[in-house]
Specification:
The chain is of the alpha/beta class. The chain is 26% helix and 17% strand.
Amino acid sequence: MEIGKATCCCMWRDVCHDVIGHDVSHTQCMHINSIRSPECTAAVIQCALRAPLKQYRHHHAARPIQAKLSHWLEVFDLQCHANPFTVAIPCWQPPASILIDTHAHVLTRISCMPLYITRSLCVHDRYADFTSMFHAEMFDPDEWATLFKNSGAKYVVLTSKHHEGWCNFPSAQHWNWNSMDVGPNRDLVGELSDSVRAAGLHMGLYHSLREWYNPIFLQDNANSCNTTNFVDEILIPTLKDMTTRYKPEVIWADGASGDNPCSRDSVKYWKAPEFLSWLYNESPVKNSVLVNSRWGTGSGGDYSTGPDRYTPGKKVSSKWESCFTIQAHSWGFDRTEGIENFFNATALIYQLVDTVSCNGNLLLNIGPTADGRVVPAFQERLLEMGKWLAVNGDAIYGTTPWKFQNDTSAKRIWYTQSKMTGDVYAISFDWPESVNGHPGDIVLSQVKNAPPTVSVQLLGMEGALTVKQSVDGLHITVPDVDTIHLPTQHAWVFAIRGLP
């Protein structure tokens, strides 16, 4: 199967080789700034969409996955990345990068960056030594859950295990390398799962398939994946234990890609069909769990997860997810960065609106501190998003893409449509200036031939606005008030009722 020039292999390196015409290293492919090829990005997302997981649902082929998706996995969720990485970031990565040497059994220190932090912090030569600084002593799962609830998110995805193999729960396969045995001495996954569900939100778990330093995984790769001891002895037992114990509603797989082609294969090495068959037919969450599409080449998923920060700007036919960060350059909290390296609330709301209008849901990452806090810079942005959604949520929750995603003459206007009422929502990130002392107009160039009975309301305010259909689109006269007195900031939503 081919998509344009790119073979449907669903991995960055292979796709880019076919599109660009020459080989590129895995590091080059994975770095978001190294290959911003639209052809690669489009090929990757389309690969995932063409490989659904229905073949694994032997006894549940009729399960209403899309109906389930439309209920809550359709808008906005939060991902939390907490592990020794939150301590190691200032010492183990150069500024504006999260790339780490994945080929060594033990990482060697890159540099201490004395311009940003004191040298006393960077005293460890082994990544494992940072566990002595990861205590999460101020971690309050109820406080986190309340924050997430107030942000307007509908589900939470916690990192249960990232690529370094550290588990945020007691794992028999990761003795002395989990949050119960060392560091916090707490079951972080269990505690947060309980609090999130008590707050009325859905709980999911991120889980890396690979482990950079695990000697069994490294030996399998050295054996060209003719052995699968890591998958059989470590990965699948851990996944089954985690699923049975915490009953996640989303399992968010990652880390199937790599320099060794064999360890990308969802069937030959990762044995995704075997695990997913158990998950969908025998596990305690068989009737409710959803999975993403990062289980290896050709694995597909209940919804598609393309490259990080994927933003197509146009409708994707199947459900997809955009993975985005609040801190611009890192998925974990980087204390060396100033506030200028955090996206502001307007930019994050724009990403949410852009994503939802194109049939996606937004996974927004936050990086807690090593002592277990969500710092005020993250909190402020989440709460601002929550305030905006409290007024304008009708344009986000329970919506579907309209026939047009954005306004061609004003790229900062996006559209959604209510599944229940059919109302169309125009979401504008610009407020028109007054003309000769009179309120200005917003012109919706995509709204043509509106019937005389059409009505428009600004969400958060009572009453209908004055509208006029012209050849260049629907003109909406905005309220004659200063923007500081409007019900929300950042963006304004016009509900259009009565369109055919």
